[in-house]
Specification:
This protein is mainly beta. Among the domains are: about 130 residues, Immunoglobulin-like; about 60 residues, no CATH class. It contains 3 helices and 52 strands. Strands 4, 5, 7, 8 and 9 form a 5-stranded antiparallel sheet that branches. A hairpin with a 5-residue loop joins strand 33 and strand 34. It starts with a strand and ends with a strand.
């Protein structure tokens, strides 16, 4: 059966030119890029199709030139496809040429449907047949110059990174020296503090004589940035932040995203071919080699599906569905070194108290233990301790929860059993809070209880099963839906919302000293809630979110070094 296909096609002149230049070393390269838009039954085509390309010497009836090319299969996404064609050196002699395109669904036994009209070929490809020795030499010299500049940029980037780390180390050393010299400071000897009103210094008659301001917020490039969104996911690969999915506003969801490299301040599009369906409120984890996306909510409901994204190959592979949990959003997920653990959430049935463990190597799921599992909930927080998945808080059947559980795994990452977290000393019930893992403690802070925004929290020791309250002096103002990351020494809080709307303030909490300090917001921080944030090792990176009911697209970076205040005794 012949299906009604149609196609708008064009040969990419700019790409032809690039191919001509890039192919100078071969002198006689004749391949060029061809892009088309295919409709199937009147709608943009998606999937795999067989194509047949022929070169003709006339728009209507005419003679074939060169060989016929059959390309099977070709991926088509939202109607678009791109292929490379090579009809041979003899096909282009300066005379006019037209390309004839035939298409059919991949694997079909029917003949190709020939699309009309034929597409004219610009004279640009004929440049590939020209004598290009002089241009080749120029291109080689230019390439060498570009490589030298690239090496210089890389060297400069490394130097800046080293300087940032050195400055942070120096700040720590200066504060340490100041702490040791807090008494009997000789006249004229400068000392430094992270507190402009350092009580120990003021008590000795020291005076503030110089301030070294904190580093400012830095706006990421606007080139290639994904569209504004919230409810998206973000994972850190060690070099890039991968952003995917999310709510674009007005009931529209995304199935795309981008990979951001802080070192070069550049975005790279994440492939859309065979990507999961558009969604928000899903989860994503980084396995060390791939990003795993699963669950969420989209226009079709709660998909019980997900996919692996291979960044180096820019390809998606579906996650197996055999034995998988039912679709849901508002759930939690962690990577435990060998498995993605998914638990709880909500779908059209209601709150769920089950979950599954997915092993990428076998593409298989096993159910999580059900005995002693916490009650079902959504918007809980989760951390991975190295041996336990710890879940706490969230919205239960009868309101916010002040409970949680630890899913204990063996040394191979296989889930074994649930254990309840202690209720003694635990924070009050809440949702929309944050939690980070310090290496020995889970720190919970902020959130919402009913209509009350919270500005307190506690640290949980899973080994001793003990909670310790956080200091409240200098803590950030009450909020929910904020970003929280662990820097290696501090919990960094930024943004979120309260009764007035989105916030642009933040703070850093040091669990060893049990003290808070404010993060700089005077240098261009963008207010937002429901954003995603990651820690690069030296910087907090924040992307997306929502403010005044509008999605945000701006990416910003902050080196969370405190301001330095220098004192001396006159």
């Amino acid at each position: 059966m012949v299906r009604p296909f149609s196609c708008f096609c064009r040969a990419l002149g700019s790409v032809w030119l690039w191919l001509a230049l890039a192919g100078l070393a071969h002198a006689q390269g004749t391949g060029f890029t061809f892009q088309g838009r295919l409709t199937d039954n009147g709608a943009p085509a998606n999937g795999l199709y067989d194509f047949q390309f022929g070169l003709r010497d006339a728009l209507a009836a005419g003679n074939a030139v060169g060989s016929t090319l059959n390309l099977n299969p070709v991926g088509v996404t939202n109607g678009l496809f791109t292929v490379t064609l090579d009809f041979g050196a003899g096909a282009f002699n300066g005379s006019a040429r037209w390309i004839e395109v035939g298409a059919r669904t991949n694997g079909s036994a029917s003949a190709h449907t020939v699309l009309a009209p034929r597409t004219p070929v610009s004279p640009v490809p004929y440049a590939m047949l020209a004598n290009t020795d002089a241009l080749a030499a120029q291109l080689a010299a230019l390439t060498a110059q570009l490589a030298a500049v690239s090496n210089q940029v890389t060297s400069l980037t490394n130097q800046v990174t080293t300087l940032v780390v050195s400055n942070a180390t120096l700040a720590t050393q200066l504060v340490t020296v100041s702490n040791y010299s807090a008494t009997n400071i000789p006249a004229g000897v400068p000392v430094v503090s992270g507190n402009a009103q350092e009580p120990a210094f003021l008590a000795q008659g020291l005076q503030l004589f110089q301030t070294v301001p904190a580093p400012p917020w830095v706006n990421g490039t606007a080139t290639g940035v994904p569209s504004a969104r919230f409810g998206h996911s973000a994972v850190w690969t060690g070099q890039q932040m991968l952003v995917w999915g999310g709510d674009l506003g007005a009931g529209t969801y995304s199935s795309g995203g981008g990979a951001y490299a802080p070192a070069s301040d550049t975005w790279q599009n994440i492939a859309t071919f065979q990507a999961p369906s558009a969604r928000a409120s899903h989860t994503a984890v980084w396995t060390g080699t791939e990003m795993l996306v699963w669950g969420g909510f989209g226009t079709s409901g709660y998909p019980a599906a997900g996919a692996h994204y291979n960044l180096s190959q820019q390809t998606w592979t579906a996650v197996g569905t055999g034995g998988s949990p039912s679709g849901r959003d508002g759930h939690v997920a962690v990577w435990n070194g060998s498995r993605m653990l998914v638990w709880s959430g909500r779908n059209n049935v209601g709150l769920l108290a089950d979950g599954g463990a997915y092993v990428p190597g076998t593409d298989g799921w096993t159910a999580l233990p059900f005995t002693d599992a916490p009650e079902g909930r959504r918007f809980a927080t989760v951390v991975w301790t190295g041996t336990n998945m710890v879940v706490w808080g969230g919205q239960g059947l009868n309101g916010e929860l002040a409970s949680g559980g630890r899913l204990v795994c063996d040394t191979g990452g296989v889930p074994q059993a649930w254990q309840a977290t202690s209720a003694t000393g635990a924070p009050v019930a809440r949702l929309g809070h944050s939690a980070v893992w310090t290496g020995s403690r889970m720190i919970v802070w902020g959130g919402l209880q009913g209509s009350t925004f919270l500005a307190d929290g506690a640290a949980y020791d899973p080994v001793a099963d003990v909670w310790t309250p956080l200091a409240t002096a200098l803590a950030p103002t009450a909020r929910t839906a904020h970003v929280a990351v662990w820097s290696g020494s501090e919990m960094l809080i930024f943004g979120g919302e309260d009764g007035t709307g989105a916030l642009l303030t933040g703070a850093a909490y040091n669990p060893v000293k049990n003290i808070w300090r404010s993060l700089d917001t005077s240098t261009g921080a963008v207010a937002r809630s429901k954003a995603a944030g990651i820690w690069t090792g030296t910087q907090l990176v924040v992307y997306g979110g929502v403010a005044a009911s509008s999605p945000v697209a701006q990416l910003q970076r902050l080196t969370p070094q405190s301001a330095w205040y220098l004192f001396h005794k006159p």
